[in-house]
Design a protein that fits this description.
mainly beta, seven-stranded mixed sheet, globular, 11 strands, 0% helix
Length: 112
């Protein structure tokens, strides 16, 4: 079993930056592909960024050049650095591992 706990969400002004963390537990965590998804009110959950099984990264077109996913296996943690935020980035952000396990989500609100 893998448990994921996100942190780092909050309120930020347009153009600002925010960093999210996802701490994973369970012996399988470091062997699973990991990624970040988000769900805005009234919309479906969508991919933001993820590591593929080969270790490369994939980003949604809407966040390319602004968001960066990274991972520290020694800390069992996946990060999402978000820069140049816009109100359209407002959503609950979820961490995913192996396509099966989800965190509880963390709210990101971009507003002036």
């Amino acid at each position: 079993q893998v448990q994921l706990v996100e942190s780092g969400g909050g309120l930020v002004q347009p153009g600002g930056s925010l960093g999210l963390s996802c701490a994973g537990s369970g012996t399988a965590f470091n062997f699973l592909t990991t990624g970040w998804y988000r769900q805005a009110p009234g919309k479906q959950r969508e991919l933001v960024a993820r590591f593929s099984s080969g270790g490369s990264t994939n980003y949604a077109d809407s966040v390319k050049g602004r968001f960066t996913i990274s991972r520290d296996n020694a800390k069992n943690t996946v990060y999402l650095q978000m820069n140049s935020l816009t109100p359209e980035d407002t959503a609950v952000y979820y961490c995913n591992a192996g396509g099966l396990f989800w965190g509880q989500g963390t709210q990101v609100t971009v507003s002036s």
